[in-house]
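Supplementary Methods S3. Complex input for the pyridoxal-5'-phosphate-bound model.
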Amino acid sequence: MTKTHGFDTLQIHAGTAPDTATGARQVPIYQTTAYVFRDADHAAALFNLAEVGYIYSRLTNPTVGALQNRIAALEGGAGAVCCSSGHAAQIMALFPLMAPGRNVVASTKLYGGTVQQFTNTIRKFGWSAKFVDFDDLAAVKAAIDDDTRAVFCESIANPGGYITDLDAIAKIADAAQIPLIVDNTTATPYLCRPFEHGATLVVHSTTKYLTGNGTVTGGAVVDSGKFDWSATDKFPSLSAPEPAYHGITFHAALGSMAFTFHGIAVGLRDLGMTMNPQGAHYTLMGIETLSLRMQRHVENAVKVATWLENDPRVDYVTYAGLKSSPYYDRVAKICPKGAGGLFTFAVKGGYDACVKLVNGLEIFSHVANLGDTRSLVIHPASTTHRQLSPEKQEAAGAGPNVVRLSIGIEDADDLIADLDQALAKATA
Ligand SMILES: Cc1ncc(COP(=O)(O)O)c(C=O)c1O
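Predicted complex, serialized as structure tokens:
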């Protein structure tokens, strides 16, 4: 597969070929922990990264490798590393960049779990995060200091579906000679290609739209391969001899694949956040229909959001695909095929009405997930964003009167009828 093939072709073929041993057309699940070395020299070459191959499935596995290659192709990146969850991918992306005392400048509009991970958990590694409104470019610029090693945002932010001006943020990160990491989970590479807007790294929760049917958790880190890790002394894990891998200088030795190889050889080896081959297989199956599903998610989201916006029981709808959204103009620039299938709306009647609405829905499933073929609903303030302070909830667009919808690919009319009857119960 080459970069000249279209997205629909790549989502089915990229990174895979008929199995060389058996001719199996579908990617086999290589359910093995280890791989027999041809001889001692072969083993030594693999451990020295002088030859690419399989050693042990905590690091590499052919099924997981196929998924890595496919995701890298869809994002237009040089390489990808898959891992056990989206949250694992975020740590894996930061790991080669950060050190005690270093910080990441992150958007306030993020998945609540990421705000929590960046606020409290990464502090245990001596890292920290500074949260800034990414619509305030001067504030983003001002937040970057000598210890900042990355800028982090979501392309389409969970839960509100707000669109980040990736080009403007990438320009700021570029000027500071630090990478922009974009969580592209809610957009997927079908709707948004962050590398075309200047991002250096993309992270995914493959748990969501990429798999698409709520079967497995997984994550991926994709590298554009374009960042010059050696331009400054900010990234010694990549630009200087790495003591964690017998002194190899990853950037000098591996060029555009430096970040990816570091992620496997050091990140997966030592952090062990590995994706299992069966999970990779499910995600490969899901990706084959990604574009078709995303088209339908967007089509349905536009219909449902438009209906909700015109309903007197609803205060406002945040979907960026609506002309009333302040983010509407960014859709054409950042995600021209649509604003995704995720958004929030505010119910008149506040917290209590939201809880009744969630309880009253019949087709929508009340779950802590998004990006499923099924329509999903959650009340972020009492669940995914519960750990955040009221100020952080508001900043993330997850106040007490807000319900999040992940619009599935069912009949839009049925989804609207379900919301209609549940709103009637909630606001009676
Ligand atoms: C935008 C976004 N990024 C990352 C994650 C974390 O992914 P995972 O649950 O696979 O760890 C989520 C989970 O909901 C998410 O919505």
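The pocket of pyridoxal-5'-phosphate is lined by residues 85-87, 111, 113-114, 154, 158, 183, 185-186, 205, 207, 217, 219, 370 (CB under 6 Å). The radius of gyration is 22 Å.
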